[in-house]
Amino acid sequence: MPNHNPRSSERSSLFQRSKTLPTGSHRRFTTPVIPTFRYDSVSNLSSDLRRDGHDGSCDGDNSNFSVGNRTAVLKSDEKPEEATPSQVLSTHSPSQRITRLWTHFSLTHCLKFSCSFSFLYVMFLRAKVAKLEEENFILLTRCSSSSRVSGSDNNETLQLKDTNNKAVVLYSVIITIVLPFLLYMYLDDLSYIKNLLKRTNHKKEEVPLKKRIAYSLDVCFSVYPYAKLLALLFATVVLIVYGGLALYAVGDCGGVDEALWLSWTFVADSGNHADRIGVGPRIVSVAISAGGMLIFATMLGLISDAISKMVDSLRKGKSEVLESNHILILGWSDKLGSLLKQLAIANKSIGGGVVVVLAERDKEEMETDIAKFEFNLMGTSVICRSGSPLILADLKKVSVSNARAIIVLGSDENADQSDARALRVVLSLTGVKEGWKGHVVVEMCDLDNEPLVKLVGGERIETVVAHDVIGRLMIQCALQPGLAQIWEDILGFENAEFYIKKWPELDGYRFEDVLISFPNAIPCGVKVAADGKIVLNPSDNYVLEEGDEILVIAEDDDTYAPGSLPEVRMCRFPKMQDPPKYPERILFCGWRRDIDDMIKVLEALLAPGSELWMFNEVPDLEREKKLTDAGLNISKLVNVKLVHRQGNAVIRRHLESLPLETFDSILILAEQSLENSIVHSDSRSLATLLLIRDIQSKRLPYKDTKSSALRISGFPSCCWIRKMQQASDKSIVISEILDSRTKNLVSVSRISDYVLSNELVSMALAMVAEDKQINRVLKELFAEKGNELCIRPAEFYIYDQEEVCFYDIMRRARQRHEIIIGYRLSGMDQAVINPSDKSKLTKWSLDDVFLVIASSH
């Protein structure tokens, strides 16, 4: 029978059309989603329906569904927006939410809960049956023996009560043990139920409750060191209490107190449960013994970990240093060995001191490296600690506030990185709340970075610029051969060194009398009490005032004291003028970062017309740019003319292109590009030295020494300085050596003079650490202006074979405004500084030389 319903025919035509769609069509039919509308109340819905009447219509072609004036349009080419589960649940009725909650629980959880509940219920029924049987037995007994005395009735009543108490205890123990496990199993579901009942809509996922509890425990055990011990103690108490109650419930212990004691014995000794009788008591006692073994194993593990951590802390140097008035060294470098040696020698007079080293290295490695130095510490103790000088906690660990001196060593990185690290260390020191009572000696690499460190640290910061000190010393040694050994004797604590002390008994003395007042020392200057300045080589008419201190050169600070004035003969002596300066030719092999400062010093010391040849691998245009950026104005150089040559100093054909036999002095500089590797730098310097010596020996067999003779006019022909300069008709070659182990190799190569960089810097650091005032003295002696350390020929003060004492020569030197501090005889290898017997008559030769402090002109 044909269907005359228009809507049904329309739906059938739509269905037929859907079947005829092509296979590759992009149009897809999905199950229509009927939109749901939420009304505040049923009355609102009915009122809307009454108001709209029968206007509600349904259009199958456009898929439009309307209820009153609320219309939802579903387009065929748009996918419906999927609703989140929380949004769906929030729109359902309470019955629907309960239904979805039940389906949310998995079958596994239901089975777990059913099994647990069934087990507890079975235990409850068994206990109840046993109780009823026992009560039935008691009632039968009471009915059959009605003739017993009233006392037996009371005992039966007590026995019944005791049975009831044990049952209650047993149920309580079982429930309190099982309940936490059940709660832990369904912790995650509790939060879900809570959100469901509150009808909340959380778009972001919440952390499960189990993970939050585990995280809280982890934080507790990490933050509080005693949390593990407290947890172990709590577990022990719980095991004893629950075990005792279980024993009381299943056994015949006589009382709760006896059951608790018995439980403790099972925990402490697992073998005590062997004499238990009955299934219940044996099961409980075995469980208690197993828990006791687990607890004691955990306790042994914690004790073992604590002991291991303590030993590891001692081994790694993490314990606190309880010292005062010690010297603190921050950092680690190749200068540490010679620095420790000098500090040990300085503390020898007081029986040794304490030196603490804080570096970012392992404590055992530091102690092993210090042991490899193989020198006698002379009673000085060296304590190593592992840590960072940039961390305040590590600084407090080495008692930075109680140190009498703090030495900040430069790192083995390049100069800029080393100075930046030193600046950060000084900032860390200024952050110490307790402050520090001593002064800080900072090793710097670049002179341009010194003002910044001074700005941060203030007046208590003393800086020793390693590159600047070595550069100036190399120039002084080039102009005065043999000066390097003299500086080693003065800077080191093995011989004579500088000391400053106040002597009230000399107040009112003129300096010319103070000069000869110390039999075992040589006064060199005065620290003026009025302004705190140190005046080197003052005038003879200067009168010491109250509070003034005297700067002397002595063997130790407790080996000298003023005495009576000796008799000094004033006799005629040769008065010679200083020889005029003549032009010189100097060669620099290599490039240093402070080469501009060295050029400025040469400009101040050399005569007009001098030439400075610069031989390195830096291109000429780049050299001028670097010198200009460093602040050197090449156009304003008057005395020195720069001659540029490009080449490699370790390639022979490059060196052969230079007139090596015509230079008065050759300085082999440590390459800036090899600052990070002192071994490679020294190997390069040594190779350059050997090549230069070999090329010079194969040039003209005799070198015209006119320029050299003019250079040291006034020196006798047999003077040891000239012999050193003209040995084998070669120029003076000075090599900058960074590693002290290269010293022997340099001596084997028959070099005329050398500079031991790291050792000299370490000596300067140790001297400034012992007395920060010495830093001002060293800076003036190294400067191009002011007073300097010089080598003078004997003919300036004596006649040949004249016999006079050392005091007489000191008086004669004062006529030239100089202070003689020592001498070197022609047949001696080492100079004598601060002679012991200054009143002894000695016959002098013109081949001798004297060491003086004189003002530079």
TrEMBL record:
The chain crosses the membrane at residues 168-187, 229-250, 283-303. The keyword Transmembrane helix applies. It holds the Pfam family Slo-like_RCK. InterPro entries: CASTOR/POLLUX/SYM8-like (IPR044849), CASTOR/POLLUX/SYM8_dom (IPR010420), NAD(P)-bd_dom_sf (IPR036291), RCK_N (IPR003148). One of its GO terms (cellular component) is nuclear membrane. Keywords: Ion channel, Ion transport, Membrane, Nucleus, Transmembrane, Transmembrane helix, Transport. It is a multi-pass membrane protein. Residues 324-465, 583-732 form the RCK N-terminal domain. It is found in: Nucleus membrane. Residues 1-29 are annotated as: Disordered. PROSITE patterns: RCK_N. One of its GO terms (biological process) is potassium ion transport. The keyword Translocase does not apply. Residues 11-23 have a biased composition (Polar residues). SUPFAM superfamilies: NAD(P)-binding Rossmann-fold domains. Belongs to the castor/pollux (TC 1.A.1.23) family. This is Putative ion channel POLLUX. It comes from Noccaea caerulescens (Alpine penny-cress).
